[in-house]
């Protein structure tokens, strides 16, 4: 790796150095490029942090809802890390344009770390990089972590395996409820949020009802009953309810972990 004194990947891999922000950025690039942290460090990172994954079709409002959640979490005082993971994009390092606009109110807050991750040419590598990036962000002190991933394909399903709580975002119209079942996202959502209810509340309620029926028909093997919520990220409606559902899911996870 580079001889940059701010980032010694070997010392990092040995778990010997704490990360400052520039070193954190370099360390995430390093795992994106295939660098491997010791398993123990990754496991510790997962224990130290609490992660929320947000997935859903392009444009459904993932970044807007992430931004609203960041704001609500910051009010409680916790430091927040955001990883915007785009398996289809080789672009990485800075935030993508849309995210930059949606997230800009957080750029001056030192309690928020925002980072985009792309595939950098190795397909499939992002799923391996994600838990490592979570560990790095957690080790830098940002212990509430939101992972936003674009789309609902297989690579997103892979990435979502590494977060504690998965939120699947849907919107009214566009036959999203039916699409959800088709894309297999019914298996991955711990919480379903129908966003953009300000545009079409009745449509949002329809998607919610349709989802509720699908969930009744195919209960999860682990016993968790996914919560279904209606929200508007733009109007800041339903954001605290989402955090409440995340808290319920965390409590349930703890209870089944013994
Ligand atoms: N009316 C309405 N518009 C919203 C809401 N949430 C997001 N939007 C708008 O929907 C568009 C897409 O929002 P994003 O947050 O960028 O969606 P995204 O899912 O992150 O998009 P990608 O990352 O490109 O997949 C933007 O123009 C938002 O302003 C909402 O609750 N209501
Ligand atoms: Mg986005």
Give the end-to-end Cα distance, rounded to a whole number of Å. 42 Å
Which H/E pattern describes the elements?
HHHEHEHEHEHEHEHEH
The total strand number stands at 7
- The total number of structural domains is 1
Q: Helix/strand/pairing class, anyone?
A: alpha/beta
What is the strand and helix layout of this fold?
Elements (H helix, E strand, L loop, with lengths): L8 H5 L7 H12 L6 H10 L1 E7 L5 H14 L4 E7 L10 H7 L8 E7 L6 H15 L4 E7 L3 H6 L5 E6 L5 H7 L8 E4 L6 H17 L9 E4 L8 H19 L1
Parallel strand pairs: 1-4, 1-5, 2-3, 2-4, 5-6, 6-7
Helix pairs in contact: 2-6, 3-6, 4-5, 4-10, 8-9
Bound molecules: guanosine-5'-triphosphate and magnesium ion.
Question: What would your notes on this structure say?
Answer:
By secondary structure, this protein is α/β, with parallel strands linked by helices. The protein has a single domain, classed as 3-Layer(aba) Sandwich (Rossmann fold), CATH 3.40.50.300. Helices cover 43% and strands 16% of the residues. The protein has ten helices and seven strands. It has helices spanning 9-13, 21-32, 39-48, 62-75, 97-103, 125-139, 154-159, 176-182, 201-217, 239-257, and strands spanning 50-56, 80-86, 112-118, 144-150, 165-170, 191-194, 227-230. Strands 3-2-4-1-5-6-7 form a seven-stranded parallel β-sheet, sandwiched between helices. Helix 4 runs parallel beside helix 5. The longest helix is centred in the last third of the chain and has 19 residues, at 239-257. The protein is globular, with a radius of gyration of 18 Å. The mean pLDDT is 84. Magnesium ion is lined by residues 62-63, 98-99, 148.
């Amino acid at each position: 790796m580079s001889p940059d004194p701010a980032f010694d990947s070997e010392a990092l891999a040995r778990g010997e150095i704490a990360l400052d922000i520039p070193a954190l950025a370099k360390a995430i690039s390093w795992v994106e490029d295939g660098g491997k942290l010791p398993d123990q460090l990754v496991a510790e990172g997962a224990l130290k942090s609490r992660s929320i994954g947000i997935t859903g079709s392009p444009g459904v409002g993932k970044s807007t809802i992430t931004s609203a959640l960041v704001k609500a979490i910051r009010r409680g005082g916790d430091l927040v890390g955001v990883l915007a993971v785009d398996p289809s994009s080789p672009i990485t390092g800075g935030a993508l344009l849309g995210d930059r606009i949606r997230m800009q109110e957080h750029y001056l807050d030192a309690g928020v770390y925002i980072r985009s991750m792309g595939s950098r040419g190795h397909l499939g590598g992002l799923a391996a990089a994600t838990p490592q990036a979570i560990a790095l962000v957690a080790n830098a002190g940002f212990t509430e972590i939101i992972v936003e991933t674009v789309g609902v394909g297989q690579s997103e399903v892979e990435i979502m395996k590494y977060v504690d709580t998965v939120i699947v975002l849907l919107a009214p119209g566009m036959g999203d409820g039916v699409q959800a079942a088709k894309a297999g996202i019914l298996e991955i959502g711990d919480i379903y949020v129908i966003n953009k209810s300000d545009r079409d509340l009745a449509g949002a309620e329809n998607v919610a009802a349709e989802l509720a029926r699908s969930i009744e028909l195919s209960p999860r093997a682990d016993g968790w009953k996914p919560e279904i919520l209606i929200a508007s990220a733009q109007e800041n409606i339903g954001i605290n309810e989402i955090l409440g559902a995340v808290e319920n899911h965390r409590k349930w996870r703890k209870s089944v972990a013994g």
